[in-house]
Protein: AMP-binding enzyme
Amino acid sequence: MATEQIMVLDERANLKNYEEALQTMDWRNVEQQFTWSETGKVNIVYEAIDRHVVEGRGERVALHYTDGSREESYTFKEMMQLSSSFANGLRSLGVQKGDRVFLFMPRSPELYIALIGILRLGAIAGPLFEAFMEEAVKDRLEDSGAKVVVTTSALVSRIRSRELPQLQHVILADAVEKTEANQILYRELMAASDAYTIEWVDREDGMILNYTSGSTGKP
Structure:
């Protein structure tokens, strides 16, 4: 005879009664939880990272990463500082609000720091599937007008920089040396100041540029 184990409700849970929440949910109330409802200032990075520092939760873990060879934890304060360094590094390269910066790399702390840094600057992030080969990568970087791409030493050979005149910089997340003039090492970029920076945007401004697979036509 099967038995059903009923878990004891954790009093710290945000959602204690799903059915009740479903009946009473109102998106207008949800919006009030975001600071922009009071300040009128919009940037998802502030909501996801910075506000937790401002509200006294800076030492709590924001990101825990493990992949078998690495196990690292980052607090909200550390993510704010690291992503500010990345954003300031991008700014030093001439990246501005609305510019396209693509990510062609596996999941790692560097990926998340880069993503948050891109959005912090008000630039538009574009994820690229790791399995894409040269032509698929070229199509998306060319169509988007990407100025910068962040990648790894294992994937950089699939980026045809010479065929992409608008692509100004290739940031190598894990390399220790550069092989092309337009390449920048991640550690060099992260030497930029971690002074707090954020670009406020409008609600209708772009944030993520995500291409379709292209299986039924041009993505």
